[in-house]
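JOB MANIFEST
job_type = single_chain_structure
chain_count = 1
residues = 196
[input]
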Amino acid sequence: DKWLVKASHPKRVVIRTGGEDGLQRIRAFAANQSQKKAHHVGQVLIVSYDLLRMHVTVLQHAMMEGSVGLLLVDEGHRLKNTAGSLTMTAFESIHATARLLISASPVQNNLSEFYSLVQFVRPGLLGDLTTFRKDFERPIAAANRKNAAPADRAVAKQQSTLLESITKGTILRRLQSEVLASVLPPRSENLLVCRL
């Protein structure tokens, strides 16, 4: 409402609380998505990870495939560990035309976590997890060992370059200094001394 004024009408859907009120709003959103093509009315649903997990079946049953244009996930690093993850299962069950994942936390030298994030955004890009581990994760990890052979390091470099080229069009990586330079002035520090 503050930024879009009249463009914010018809009302977009923002769920701030759970309970029956939150469930009713999610149902209303899902019903509108089912009828979107007839009415040409789009809405934005902003919901927490917890509410999505609790009410994902409402969204699944009410929406037809392709009715969600963009699934945008903030704090994407929370999806790194997918083994038995209810959150990842909930997200993957929503059919969306496009997916975008935002994370301020870098992948912590764990290629399985990297695989999970890429798999969410572009399913199948890196193949299945077993093949990915064999082709990329193991050779790259072998080169990081203390007494790695030069041949292992060469294979790791080759596979790392290949992995980077495959994911190049999928990942936008920016340094904090690059992001903040265009928005914030240079930081200045002042030391103030005062009485308690």
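[summary]
The two ends are 43 Å apart (CA to CA).
The chain has a mean pLDDT of 79.
exit_status = 0
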